[in-house]
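Show me any protein, fold above all:
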Amino acid sequence: MPLHPAIVAWLEPLKALPPIHTLPVAMVRAGGAERLKFAPPPPPVGTVVNRGIPGPAGDIPIRIYRPFGVGPFPLTVFFHGGGFVLGNLDSHDPVCRHLCLASDSVVMAVDYRLAPEHKFPAATDDCLAAVRWAASHAREIGADGKRIALAGDSAGATLSAVTAIRVRDEGGPALCAQLLNCPRVDHRVDLPSYRDNAEGYFLTLAMVNWFANHYLGKPEDAHDPHASPIQAKSLAGLPPAYILTAEYDPIRDDGEIYADRLTAEGVPVVRKRYSNMLHDFPYILLDVVPEAAEELAAHGAWLKARFAAA
């Protein structure tokens, strides 16, 4: 199916901009902050609280979104995307609000350390610390520590997958779900989707490599299962997964081979590919195509079901 016409129109003005992979990191981050000023107002939730929690290298900023009503609510720990280089609590604030409402859960967004200032494994160490803190302080934030899900988009989906593995291998806490929106699970670039979608669809192969070069400290890091979760010796015993992919995404095949392997090792998986969408569309195109909001609602419905089954 051809790319959605509204996305074709959205891509057109981007062609006049210099490619991200040719720019300094600071300039790209500044541009993202500037674009936030023109975003539509996000939906209200019950409460929003900013605070810091202890991490392996100092406090980790978090933002806690509580639904309307009386808790304790289930808990979704959210890791933002941005190639491990970009993104923060503000960039994904609208998405976290929508997810909070759609899932009827407390959403705890984690502002993990970014590359290149903090190379691998800084981000995943922060994410693991945040999940453990959330489990032990669930009541304090109006949540139920026995119903915890992980969620993230793009690099945040990768961090969710890695954190699920680390939690399993390093002593808990128990998780009931992992919601992976367009994850990258392997730092190989020899899969067909990297060739088919190398250019022209927002996320390019050059950008994928730019992010990886900033994130990984040395070549052998690419084979570490805490960077490339597909490299884990076993995926058995991980929580049920929802894996979203898009046809016009260079990392499409990553998510799909991860879904295949999880299924083969006995993990329940809901997998969905949109044939006319590009990378991370539910979050970056929320105000562009109706399918984005529909998919966010589906994320919430799936999380609700997993929380009910926990």
